Structure formats: structure tokens, C-alpha cells
Amino acid sequence: xxxxxxxxxxxxxxxxxxxxxxxxxxxxxxxxxxxxxxxxxxxxxxxxxxxxxxxxxxxxxxxxxxxxxxxxxxxxxxxxxxxxxxxxxxxx
Length: 92
Description:
The protein is of the alpha+beta class.
């Protein structure tokens, strides 16, 4: 049995709930993001952070999917965090 890597459409109840979040939230109010940028001290020099044994414990590049538009299967409030400082070395 093969598995598809294509995203599935959101179930109607999920799409409706996510639209409700969009309707109720002030995503255009970026004061908290501006505050975070003002206090930003830096980000990791490398995108993959290993532990003492060399195993990856944090991979900032794995969050690259957040650079795309929020799919209707995800809560839009999670995507709102995408531009926060320090999320990725690509965003300085």
C-alpha cells in the first residue's frame, strides 16, 4: 500500500473552526511581534543543533513549511507565530 505525500483537504468541521479563529483574531495587530523584535537578542548560528553525541535535538530548517501559507488543516494562530524572531536563521 503506497502512502501519498499530498496534503488532504480539511474536514468541514476543522475548516469551519479554523475560519472562526481567523474571523475572531486580530492577526493584523502586530504590536506583540514588534515588542519581540525589539527585545530580540539573536538566533542560533547553525540551523541544526546536535547533542553531545551528535544526534539532532533541534532542526530550525524543519520549520521551513511555515514559510508557506497556512493550510486549512492547521489552526491559523499557529502560523501567526511564524515571523517571530529567532524561529529560523533565515529570519534575522
